[in-house]
Amino acid sequence: MIPRQQVEKRVAEFLETCRRQGVKATHQRTEILRELAGSEEHPDAETILARVRKRIPAISVDTIYRTLRLLEDRGVIARVGSMRDRARFDANTDRHHHFVCTECEMIGDFCSDAMDRIPVPLEVSEMGSVEGVYVELRGICRKCKQKAMKTKGPT
Amino acid sequence: MIPRQQVEKRVAEFLETCRRQGVKATHQRTEILRELAGSEEHPDAETILARVRKRIPAISVDTIYRTLRLLEDRGVIARVGSMRDRARFDANTDRHHHFVCTECEMIGDFCSDAMDRIPVPLEVSEMGSVEGVYVELRGICRKCKQKAMKTKGPT
DNA sequence: AACTCCTTTCGTAATAATTACTATTTAGGA
DNA sequence: TCCTAAATAGTAATTATTACGAAAGGAGTT
Ligand SMILES: [Mn+2]
Ligand SMILES: [Mn+2]
Ligand SMILES: [Zn+2]
Ligand SMILES: [Zn+2]
Asked: Are A27 and A56 in contact, with CB atoms under 8 Å apart?
């Protein structure tokens, strides 16, 4: 579980960003971010909608998608997950990367100093200027592997 | 431009894979792969469809998508590009990574031994078994940067 | 060749995810 | 408080992708 304190810190940062950038800090936006910041599972838009609806029953699909785009564009949240599935979101802006299970779509966080320290290859500098990195390790999670064992029988 | 020879090598490999896996090597599949293997731009499904239609006018949308999924599942091609845009495809199976321009969606290839040598963090091994890596550097390409210069004026 | 059986394709319909539209509401400043 | 541009709700539209059913293809058999 993510500490309430940290969630509120992210929300406060967002409210500050709004003030600086002349964007309105609405109830809807705040609750969407609060929901996402309190989750460790990198939920998709639909899941976020369902959860925020518990607190704001009349919130619309449009607002969810529009807000997620807004937050992403301002760098408050990030879009994660592989192309084959629907978009997933992440309010954790600390530098980290993801492990994705190709079976159940579970997404886990990890850090790697080694990875973060790699310089941008010259080849890339010639293509353009790099502003962000996205690293995703793909495989089968523990849970899915065990499930496969039970079904097919052990090795 | 990609040498004809290399394109045909990839096509031949695919035909071999078909034989081994008991999948039919149809004209449609062959032409879709040939088109993709001959392109350096990581085209999307729609683009591939339009191009293959020049040679097989009656080919259907279904066949394009079904075939792309088949090829991806067999590891013959890969799906690339970031979540915000439509899926893009790549028939280059040599280990490499991508630079993506967030402005014009241009996708360029690059290699990085440093990146490929990084061991999987323990943290990740505990989550599951890693079977693939996807690395994407994001930024603004040269062309888009120059365009921005002309519009807004230089620094 | 004609027959059989299974795979694949075409043409089109359906679905799923995301985005757009417009009347109405609201945040935040004067 | 009052005003106004910005944002939202409810719904329609769009886009990308997948599903379906009838027809075609292809390989082995007679
Ligand atoms: Mn994360
Ligand atoms: Mn590539
Ligand atoms: Zn899993
Ligand atoms: Zn560009």
From this structure: yes
